[in-house]
Amino acid sequence: PEKPGAGGRKWQPARPEFALHGLTIPGGDVAPALRGCGQNLDLYRRLLQIFVDSAASTPDKIRLALAKGDRGTAEREAHTMRGAAGNIGATTLAAVSTELELAIEKSQENEALIQKFTAASAELINALKQALEEQAAKVATEAATEEAHKAAARAADAAEAAQVCATRRHRLEEAGREARHESTTTRPSKP
């Protein structure tokens, strides 16, 4: 079903997996998150890394808070995950986080829902770790390739410059020999 969106565009549901610039987020949509970063892919990658570094422990924090009877902390952790997931375009995890947050608020959470949240978190974090590692390797390879091309171009330029110098030196030497030869052959004879 299509619903009108902002700016007259039609709303479309999130795709189960969306890739942009080689980054894939299971159950997510990278495009709006990247727009939120001003189309700055490096900033977006840094946000993904921060998410990976900080979100991995959230399911354990929620379980621990619930075990201690600290529903407020558990609810805040689910809420924080919802926001963080939304910020990076992880729509599926954001939805599961919202579901868990509301269940905790109403004291209706259960093990199946917590497990669903834990699985969605783990799946996303593992996929992001892999994608970020692949991106880092790709960037390093591209940088090395670019540097190799620059080095080859510098070497070719140096070889060309050496050839030009050698050709000019050869021409100058020939011109010098010709000038010496002409000076000895064109001298007027003494009467």
Give a concise summary:
With 191 residues, the chain is mainly alpha-helical. It contains 6 helices and 4 strands.
What this model shows, in words?
With 191 residues, the protein is mainly alpha-helical. The protein is built from six helices and four strands. Helix 2 runs antiparallel to helix 6, helix 3 packs antiparallel against helix 4 and helix 4 runs antiparallel to helix 5. The longest helix has 75 residues. The chain is rod-shaped and about 130 Å long.
For the biggest β-sheet, the strand order reads 1-2
In total, how many beta strands?
4
End-to-end distance: 114 Å
Give the helix tally: 6
Strand pairing plus helix content: what structural class?
A: mainly alpha
Strand content: 5-15%
- Write down the overall mean pLDDT: 81
Shape: rod-shaped
Helix share of residues? over 70%
Over the alpha carbons, how many angstroms does the gyration radius reach? Answer: 33 Å
Reported for the largest beta sheet, the result is:
2 strands, antiparallel
Can you lay out the helices and strands and say which pair or pack?
Elements: E1 3-4, E2 10-11, E3 17-20, E4 23-26, H1 30-36, H2 41-55, H3 58-67, H4 71-88, H5 91-105, H6 111-185
Antiparallel strand pairs: 1-2, 3-4
Helix pairs in contact: 2-4, 2-6, 3-4, 3-6, 4-5, 5-6
